[in-house]
């Protein structure tokens, strides 16, 4: 989540203890992707620690456990669902989106299962669904049925933009690993509810070898080329009264905070006349330094 070791010399001061990292992270960014909950439900004490380490304005986003989404594929998982939300209860008010990430083989035939599951989850909370089956990106009946279901229930469709990542050739191990793990799917910037979620899988700005190879191959090589579309779409959602969440990743996330800040500042400057976004100061270096949070937009795990 926020404990990437490489960040010890960037957003965290070198003297920052591991237990203090979340509090330091929350000095800069106002939301985080909680991916660890996908692999295992945290302990009750851990949840309480996360709550006490963050201000009231901070928003987590947590993935539902893989036992629910991947192993049981949303079927006969009432007990697991109840157990998860019982443990996470102290963070209910601080969680902006509960994310339901579905496996790539979860396809159109299982939409009735998704509908039944969405009827079963605790109501009154904000959910997002991330699908990876190709049929849901083909602009056909399957995608329309999915979108109708989500719109009807007020559920956000999570958008993953991995174009920058796959514009790079596999020039180092981080990119090779990311190519294997991340899906390569079309980007459909639709808002099915009030809290659109965009996961932007960017390039490492300093991966010079990869950028040079991409240029030689005639491929786009710059994060800004791909982010330009979001510079247009995000302010439109804001004007509509929506509250988008933006998460920025890189192949190994070593420089994700720096990229997140750079893209946010670029967005803030471009849309200043349309929408006023809060300022974001430089990365925190020492415990004595503070900074302004990112407002609606956020940085990644």
What does this structure look like?
- The chain has 301 residues and is of the alpha/beta class.
- It has 2 domains: 35-157, Protein of unknown function UPF0759 (TIM Barrel, Alpha-Beta Barrel); 159-301, no CATH class.
- Helices cover 39% and strands 12% of the residues.
- The protein has 12 helices and 8 strands.
- A 5-stranded parallel beta sheet has the order 1-2-3-4-5.
- Residues 282-301 have low confidence and may be disordered.
Query: Roughly what fraction of the amino acids lie in strands?
Result: 5-15%
User: How is the largest sheet built, in terms of strand order?
Assistant: 1-2-3-4-5
Largest sheet: 5 strands, parallel
Mass-distribution shape: globular
Radius of gyration: 19 Å
Write down the domain tally.
2
Secondary structure tally: strands: 8
The number of helical runs is 12
Q: Structural class of the helix and strand makeup? A: alpha/beta
What portion of residues is helical? Answer: 25-40%
Helix-strand sequence: HEHHEHHEHEHEEHHEHHEH
Low-confidence stretches: 282-301
What is the average per-residue confidence, as pLDDT, rounded to a whole number?
88
The end-to-end distance, rounded to whole angstroms, is 4 Å
Could you write a compact summary of the structure shown?
The protein has 301 residues and is α/β, with parallel strands linked by helices. It folds into 2 domains: 123 residues, Protein of unknown function UPF0759 (TIM Barrel), CATH 3.20.20; 143 residues, no CATH class.
């Amino acid at each position: 989540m926020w404990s990437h070791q490489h960040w010890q010399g960037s957003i965290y001061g070198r003297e920052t203890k591991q237990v203090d990292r979340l509090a330091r992270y929350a000095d800069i960014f106002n939301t985080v992707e909680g991916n660890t909950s996908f692999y295992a439900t945290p302990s009750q004490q851990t949840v309480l620690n996360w709550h006490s380490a963050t201000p009231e304005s901070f928003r987590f986003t947590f993935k539902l456990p893989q036992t629910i989404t991947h192993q049981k594929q949303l079927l006969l998982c009432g007990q697991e669902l109840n157990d998860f939300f019982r443990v996470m209860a102290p963070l209910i008010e601080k969680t902006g989106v509960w994310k339901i990430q579905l496996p790539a083989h979860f396809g159109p035939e299982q939409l009735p299962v998704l509908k039944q599951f969405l009827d079963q989850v605790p109501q009154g909370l904000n959910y997002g669904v991330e699908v990876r089956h190709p049929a849901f990106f083909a602009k056909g009946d399957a995608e329309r049925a999915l979108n109708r279901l989500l719109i009807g229930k007020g559920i956000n469709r999570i958008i993953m933009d991995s174009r920058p990542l796959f514009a790079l050739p596999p020039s180092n191990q981080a990119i090779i690993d990311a190519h294997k793990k991340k899906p390569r799917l079309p980007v459909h910037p639709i808002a099915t509810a009030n809290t659109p979620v965009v996961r932007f899988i960017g390039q490492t700005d300093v991966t010079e070898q990869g950028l040079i190879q991409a240029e030689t191959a005639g491929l786009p090589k710059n994060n800004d080329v791909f982010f330009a579309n979001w510079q247009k779409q995000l302010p439109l959602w804001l004007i509509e009264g929506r509250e988008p969440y933006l998460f920025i990743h890189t192949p190994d996330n070593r420089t994700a905070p720096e990229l997140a800040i750079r893209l946010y500042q670029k967005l803030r400057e471009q849309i200043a006349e349309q929408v006023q976004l809060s300022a974001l100061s430089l990365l925190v270096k020492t415990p004595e330094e503070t900074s302004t949070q990112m407002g609606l937009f956020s940085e990644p795990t």
